[in-house]
Each structure stands twice: as structure tokens, then as C-alpha cells.
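=== RUN LOG ===
request id: a7f3
mode: sequence -> structure
chains: 1
length: 102
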Amino acid sequence: MIVEILYVDDCPGHARLLPTVQRLAELAGAELRQQRIRNSREAERERFLGSPTVRVNGRDVEPGASARTDYGLKCRIYRSVALGQASVPPERWIRAALGDDG
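=== RESULT ===
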């Protein structure tokens, strides 16, 4: 299993999210990879919805993200019932993508 964090430089959400994703990936026995997105061409190629983006085995952890096409170099805003708006995805989305709903 591969967990990816895609990010842009100077993204405060990336620094905030990294320890959580490191811990969850380790608990799941997954490999963690980080990828810095440098330009618009990379953002399009990687289907980058903003920083930070978390993927498990190539799938975005945000439900419904596969239908989005608003790629670009930007900070990402996550919306959930539990958190409202946040700069990082809810931990439960990451756990669910890793197969751990607890």
C-alpha cells in the first residue's frame, strides 16, 4: 500500500498534516511518499486539487474528489460535516482509505 502526500511549497496544511499521515501509514504498514508540485503542468498531470492532497494507492481520500477537475497550484480546502472547512482532510477519511474505519 502506498500513501502519497502531494503539496506545494509554503503550504501550512502540509506541515500540519504530515505527522498524522506518517503515523497512520506506519500503523497500516504502508509506504509514505511525498511529492512537491512545482508548476501548473505538473498539477494537471497529477490531477492535483491543491495542497495538501492525500492519496492511498492513487485514490484521493476525499469522497467525490475523482469527479473534480479544478487542478492547480493552490492551498486546498476540505469540507466535512464534522470539521466544517479545514486545511487538512479529516483523519477518518485517511483511515477509511487505509481500510481502518476505527
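=== NOTES ===
The radius of gyration is 13 Å.
Residues 12-28 form the longest helix (17 residues).
=== END ===
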